[in-house]
Amino acid sequence: MLRETAAPDSVNGRELTVDLGRFGIWRHEDGLSPEYAQEIERAGFGTVWIGANPKGDLALPEAMIAATDRLIVATGIINLWTVGAAEVAESYHRIARRFPGRFVLGIGIGHPETDREYASPYQTMVDYLDVLDRAGVPPDRRVLAALGPRVLRLAAARTAGAIPYLTTPQHTLQARELIGPKPLIATEQMVVLDTDVERARALGRQRVADPYLRLTNYISNLKRLGWSDADLVPDGSDALIDALVVHGDAKNVAAGLVAHLDAGANHVCAQILADDNDYLPALRSLGEALGTL
């Protein structure tokens, strides 16, 4: 369970003042472009989350906003170890002046296995948020990657809320109970639109096992949710993979996204696992299914 008795930071966060819509898309920056942003908007999604540490100049999100009419663009996430807060703040203000209400800054701490500078992660997040405060980046336009109770509380106290990654509706429910009704919870959910269970599970396992089941932050979170070593090693049990990667036809996948909303999320961003040739058809199919809900 996500239990933490320490009081939240004394600085109060703010509710997000941007309407993300109920559903969004998470995609690695290498697979995104202004043209892809247009496809995501046409498919009916409210937000696109740019994954895997976008550059601090935020040129890609700015170009994607410019190419669309109403799509919200968010970073998911800027890595605090590799991009300085001052650079991010300057880029944020440039976009906010040009496109008011169209951009959300998502930041996060990364992983000790991949970031050589990783030390005092909680204090590093606090210090980074302090710089954003001094630079005038409003709490109601920024969110924090969070899994465990301490960082979830920090997200609620210093930003508009949390963007959990690689979680289940059970985690969403516990996070909502922990941080209360007002802060944002925008949960990422991997999906495979394929009714062949073995094929879909194999694709999900390929994505989850390496790197995520090799990273301490995610392993610790899954153990807090009750998953055992036998589920985690070496490449994830079938039950774990099925919990982390919703698969089936578009209607079944849509139901898996709604499960997070029912558990207390405000917004769910689908990470569609598909080959390049299959991605846009899957995007459109999922958008159609969600549009009927």
How does this structure look, described?
44% of the residues lie in helices and 17% in strands. Mean pLDDT is 94; it is low at 5-11. Strands 1, 2, 3, 4, 5, 6, 7, 8, 9 and 10 form a ten-stranded parallel beta sheet that branches. It is built from twelve helices and ten strands. The protein has a single domain (23-291), classed as TIM Barrel (Alpha-Beta Barrel). It is globular. The chain has helices spanning 34-42, 59-66, 85-98, 121-134, 149-158, 169-179, 197-209, 216-224, 229-232, 238-244, 250-263, 276-291, and strands spanning 23-28, 47-51, 72-76, 78-79, 103-108, 142-144, 161-162, 184-193, 245-248, 267-272. α2 (59-66) links the parallel β2 (47-51) and β3.
Layout of SSEs?
Blueprint: E1 23-28, H1 34-42, E2 47-51, H2 59-66, E3 72-76, E4 78-79, H3 85-98, E5 103-108, H4 121-134, E6 142-144, H5 149-158, E7 161-162, H6 169-179, E8 184-193, H7 197-209, H8 216-224, H9 229-232, H10 238-244, E9 245-248, H11 250-263, E10 267-272, H12 276-291
Parallel strand pairs: 1-2, 1-10, 2-3, 3-5, 4-5, 5-6, 7-8, 8-9, 8-10
Helix pairs in contact: 1-2, 3-4, 6-11, 7-10, 11-12
Provide the β-strand percentage band: 15-25%
Q: Would you report the number of β strands?
A: 10
Query: What's the CATH architecture name?
Result: Alpha-Beta Barrel
Rg? 18 Å
Low-confidence stretches: 5-11
Question: What is the general shape?
Answer: globular
Rounded to the nearest angstrom, the distance between the terminal CA atoms is 31 Å
Helix content: 40-55%
Which structural class is indicated by helix and strand composition? alpha/beta
Total helices: the number is: 12
